[in-house]
Amino acid sequence: MFNVYNNNYSITKLYDFYVCFTLKYTDMIVIDIELFKEILKNSFTYFKSIDNDIFSLAILSKKDNLSFIQIYFDNSYDLDFLKFIETHQKEINQKEIWIHCFSPYQLPFKIKDTYMHTNYQGVIENSKLHKFYIENKYKFNSVQETLFMMLSKKNKPTLSIELVSIHKEKNVCISYYNKNIHSGFNYFLKELKNSNWEKVLSETNKPILVATINNNVVGFAGPLSVANDKRGEFSGIGVINDAQGFGLGKLLFYNLHQELYKMGATYMSLYTGRTNKALKIYQDAGFEIVQSFVTLKKTL
Q1: From residue 154, how far is each of 112, 163, 216, 232 by CA, in Å?
Q2: pLDDT for 211-246, tens place per residue?
């Protein structure tokens, strides 16, 4: 009844079940079979079958001794199926199972039935599957909020007279990064203390918005791009510690979505932690929360 996938089993049969379940029971967007094959190649895949018909499917991607549940399709919430997966994970020396926004593969899902976001960030808060995990000793890690906004020329940030005065005094400027004009970019990257951002910003050829004080880079938003479906995209927004408290994050974010609008984007979607201070910046700019995900983990 319970199986660990190997190359002897029909991948087409698994994919057909995945497509049918996705369309009927979830708000996820179906990925093509080539990406499905790639994920299976680099993951642990489990399924429940009766008389050669598939009834449940679970795909766990891997990173060192951690496993990430990418897909868990089981409307029966069969505890024995979950225990089968966990037992096998222990046998192959995996230490923890995560349901998380930083899983190796980002899977897209629908927003408002029309738009999309690129990363299914965990399990939907208060869903049956969320409660099933909690009942089986998966521990709470965080809540991630998915946010959405249609882009326009509106939504200008409101800054106090005091902050406007500080910006003038410190010669604050928001503009596209130009290595021939701006100073201190490498120092700024180190001060961000985020290796992922440092890698993205140092390697990209896409435009980056920067906040500068007297021409020295102290904050960024980007890199900027527009997807085929007119979704405005960026990797992050950050201001170094010494320049925080002056409203630079709000200014950067406003300029970010205005520039994306000029580039042809019609909407933006993003996610952030419920306790992240950036959430207020996004909501002040006009974003609305459209889905809440919970991230969980279990030590085996």
Answers
A1: 21, 21, 29, 16
A2: 999 889 999 999 999 999 999 999 888 899 888 888
59 three-state secondary structure:
strand
- Smallest CA-to-CA distance from 127 within 79, 72, 48 is with 72
If you average pLDDT over residues 175-185, what whole number do you get?
Answer: 91
The domain total for the chain is 2
Integer Cα distance of 60 and 78 in angstroms:
17
Same domain, residue pair 26 and 98: yes
Tell me the C-alpha distance between 56 and 58, whole Å. Answer: 7
CA angle 49, 18, 25 (to 5 degrees): 100
Q: Can you give the residue range of the structural domain that contains 230?
A: 152-265
Q: What pLDDT digit, counting tens, does each position of 1-21 carry?
A: 999 998 888 999 999 999 999
Same domain, 48 and 98: yes
Question: Both 18 and 56 in a single domain?
Answer: yes
Query: What does DSSP assign to residue 264?
Result: T
The pTM of this model reads 0.87
Question: What single letter denotes the amino acid at residue 246?
Answer: F
Which of residues 101, 127, 145 is at a domain's end?
145
